[in-house]
Amino acid sequence: MRIIYLLPLLLVACAGTQEPLRPGAERPQSVTDSINLSGFPPEFRRGFTDGCAAARANGASGRPKGDGPYVVGWSDGFDYCRPKKPN
Q1: Does residue 9 sit within a domain?
Q2: Are 24 and 33 within 8 A, CB to CB?
Q3: Which of 6, 26, 49, 83 can bridge 19 by disulfide, Cβ–Cβ 3.0-4.6 Å?
């Protein structure tokens, strides 16, 4: 009988351990609508969106190489949208 009382507490404790996301990170395709990237070139914004999508898919195997605006945007988007560990 006591297990019935402990189960809700266990579920609440587990629900509180989800990693918080930054604004817009839950929707990678429209993340640039949630943050202001208006001063950045289109290649950077496209890379940011793609990097965010890669982070939400839990994989960085497609990380592009180089240092152009797309690659820098991809890296920034990946870092922005990757779930953060709770403190």
Answers
A1: no
A2: yes
A3: 83
